[in-house]
Design brief:
This protein starts with a helix and ends with a helix. The protein contains 13 helices and ten strands. It is of the alpha/beta class and 348 residues long. The strands form two sheets. Strands 6-7-8-3-9-10 form a six-stranded mixed beta sheet, sandwiched between helices. Strands 2-1-4-5 form a four-stranded antiparallel beta sheet, with helices on one face. The protein folds into two domains: 78 residues, no CATH class; 244 residues, 3-Layer(aba) Sandwich (Rossmann fold), CATH 3.40.50. Helix 1 runs antiparallel to helix 2, helix 6 packs across helix 8 and helix 12 packs across helix 13. Helix content is 45%, strand content 16%.
Length: 348
């Protein structure tokens, strides 16, 4: 595309230059041959220069209009998109308190256009108030499992139950209000610190006490304290007077956004990968307190974090290969024990 654009620009430039100098030469020769007067020649040359600038400006404006039209076409195409997730015609009432937990029953999932399974034959029960850790190599299916739990996708086979009811039977908005989540690829909103945190529960965005409480739990209070305008400070460098944060500071903001939601399920996908060791230790020393009474699902490659969970699921090749507590899995001597020993050896 760049080569085609350069070639076309060069050809049009040659045509424009050639026509310009041909017209100039004709006017000069016409004046030399007494076909026009010297005054007419001066008038024609002046008008020619002015008209050339006018047409150049016109074509530039048309080009810009065309390019802007392409962006607007993308925008309107995006606005016309409709949700693809099926919605229950008569949704079940979302539980105010989870009593039976979450169950994965023979769950399998394939991404559209793919032949291989991202997850297959997953059977898993998460009890009320339980802290579950998911470990395994990259691409094993950990994040996919979380996306199924939050109904960003629906299973290709099997079902996921919340208190005995299929997730697809609940209203999708009510279900997502039940779950607070931070993914690895969390969004860095080019907005104020208050909005970055408050977006975790938009209907409480104007509640300063709630926002500050979430900031304290996620560690963003220390970040906000360093900003000149506090919660009203603009984050990111897209706009004037914006404050660009480090990766760890952005992660604290995102973690606080997850705590903003009054959900009964908290999902943390690599929540502390960009935090320093001291802040990570502080957060996970309070892990039980922060998730008291909630189901917490934690994805992490740091076994110092994982061992704090009640139970650990090792996912390999889209399947649950091992399941149990930290002590049980170490005694099992399988994949978890091997990975734990490898990581522990680095600190000896």
């Amino acid at each position: 595309m760049a080569r085609r654009r350069s070639l076309i620009s060069m050809l049009w430039g040659l045509v424009a230059s050639a026509s310009y100098y041909v017209a100039y030469a004709w006017i000069i020769f016409a004046a030399a041959g007494s076909l026009i007067t010297l005054g007419s020649m001066t008038l024609y040359l002046t008008l020619f220069r002015q008209s050339q600038n006018t047409f150049q400006s016109l074509f530039n404006n048309l080009n810009q209009l065309y390019e802007h039209g392409l962006f607007m076409d993308n925008l309107f195409s995006f606005l016309k998109l409709t949700p693809q997730m099926a919605r229950a015609t008569k949704p079940a009432v979302i539980p105010t308190q989870i009593t039976r937990g979450i169950e994965f029953q023979n769950v399998g999932f394939r991404y559209p256009g793919r032949e291989d399974w991202a997850l297959r034959n997953v059977n898993l029960t998460i009890r009320p108030g339980e802290k579950l850790a998911l470990v395994g190599p990259n691409g094993a299916g950990k994040t996919t499992l979380i996306k199924l739990l939050t109904r960003l996708y629906d299973p290709s086979e099997g079902q996921i139950l919340l208190d005995g009811v299929d997730l697809r039977e609940y209203d999708i908005e009510d279900l997502r209000r039940l779950i607070g989540v931070i993914f690895q690829d969390f969004v860095k909103y080019q907005l104020t610190a208050k909005e970055n945190i408050g977006f975790g529960q938009i209907d409480r965005l104007d509640d300063p006490g709630k926002v500050e409480f979430a900031a304290e739990r996620g560690g963003a209070d220390s970040v906000v304290a360093e900003l000149s305008d506090g919660m009203d400070s603009m984050l990111g460098n897209m706009f004037g007077k914006g404050n660009e944060l480090s990766g760890g500071q952005w992660q604290k903001i995102a973690l606080s956004r997850a705590f903003m939601r009054d959900g009964q399920v908290l999902v943390l996908d690599e929540p502390t990968s960009a935090l320093d060791a001291e802040r990570e230790y502080e957060i996970f020393q309070r892990f039980r307190e922060l998730t008291d009474g909630k189901i917490a699902v934690l994805i992490s490659h740091r076994f110092s974090t994982v061992r704090m969970a009640d139970r650990i699921a090792v996912i390999e090749g889209g399947r649950i290969a091992e399941f149990g507590s930290h002590a049980e899995l170490v005694d099992l001597g399988g994949t978890y024990a091997r990975l734990f020993d490898l990581q522990a050896a680095g600190y000896r």
